[in-house]
Amino acid sequence: MERVTAGSFVFLTLVGFLSCENPALTLEQKLIIIEQAIETARRAEHVPGVVVGIIKDDSVVFVKGFGLRNVEAGLPVTAQTLFPIASVTKTFTALAAVLSAEKGNLSLDDSPGKFLPYFTLRDPDANAGVTLRDLLSHRTGVPDTLDVGWYERYSDRETLIRIAMLSGTRGGFRKDFNYNNYMYLVAGEMIARSHNKTFERVLTDLVLKPLGMNSSTLSTEAMMQTLDFSFGYAGGLERTRVPLRKLDYLSALLPAGGVISSANDMVRWVRLMAGGGVFEGKRLVPEEGFREMLMPHVKTEEGSYGLGLFIEEWNGRKVYFHHGGVPGFGSRFEFIPDQRLGLIVLTNINDQRLPIQVRTIVYSHLIAE
Fold first, then answer.
1. Residue 36 CB partners (closer than 8 Å, separation 6+)
2. Domains detected in the chain
């Protein structure tokens, strides 16, 4: 579990007091308390900027920016501010795979070698049996152990995959959870080849366009051409700006972590997921495919992992989520199906403490007993 800091303690004390103070509050009153608690937590954790979106019963009940997207210029975070969502992208890639399977372009049981003839794993058993489903659930037995930053030297996906294939195994094939960004890169290339298109085109056509996520983009270059995007920050109490060029590698690693989006767009994504694959009354994800995403495929330290989704519990309720982090940015999205509740948190520091606190604030007030 994530550790509790001094700032976290202040916020947890506040949440505990407020959530017990008056259980008969209206939704509007609860949202006012939530807004105040988020800002208190943001200041306690010294996060320059954050935006939060909340879905309840298929309605967007809260979208608000806090703090600054550009500290130096004093520009505020808005619901339209673009942030890299980092590894939350993996759930998008998993959905693209499920939708591609539904269309008949591929099967989740296909071998990577069917689409990428150069693909091999060092372990003979894993190499003989590995499927797209294994890639999406991090159960190939191959860990992500390559040196930090090595990928910044390469801009094409095949080269990245060939180098990543040199990694040995750790644990058992289909037995152990080994989080691996590069296996998601392989998955993305399989999906792309099955459509005879780029992964960018497939993701746009299958996911972004149907959801109306029109502000989202797939490169930092495109992000910087907009009027409302966030810079990233790092350091201690005095936050320093992280050069955006440190994110250039995300284009090559798009299937693992390259989507850039806003809260206004991401609440549409959360509505789809919290709604069981239904968006604005229309089923966009087949029931069987959606169940496959939510099905535990491998055990993790604190729960399990489906297809692009961590599965854990919060006070006895099953929660599906993914978090992400890249230099200068952090993200988290979650949903609880039986509550029809979901949230998105985007921050401009790479730290999960505030997103975890926001989750606790929201759940403490909006989960029905």
1. none
2. 49-90+200-350 (3.40.710.10), 93-97+104-196 (no CATH)
Please tell me the distance from the alpha carbon of residue 70 to that of residue 228, in angstroms, as a whole number: 10
CA distance linking residue 341 with residue 319, whole number of Å: 10
**Residue 183 pLDDT > 50, yes or no?**
yes
Residue with tokens 């942030």: 83
Residue with tokens 């910044």: 152
- Lowest-pLDDT choice from 6-15, 134-143, 253-262, 274-283: 6-15
Q: List 326's β-bridge partners, or say none.
A: 329
Residue 38, classed as helix, strand or coil, is helix
Contacts of 63 (CB under 8 A, 6+ apart): 51, 52, 53, 54, 79, 263, 264, 267
Q: Could you tell me the pLDDT band of residue 34, with boundaries at 50, 70 and 90?
A: very high
* Cα Rg of the chain, angstroms: 20
Taking the CA atoms of 153, 159, 164 and 168 in sequence, report the sign of the dihedral they define: negative
Q: List, in sequence order, every beta strand (DSSP E) within 57-112.
A: 59-70, 75-76, 83-84
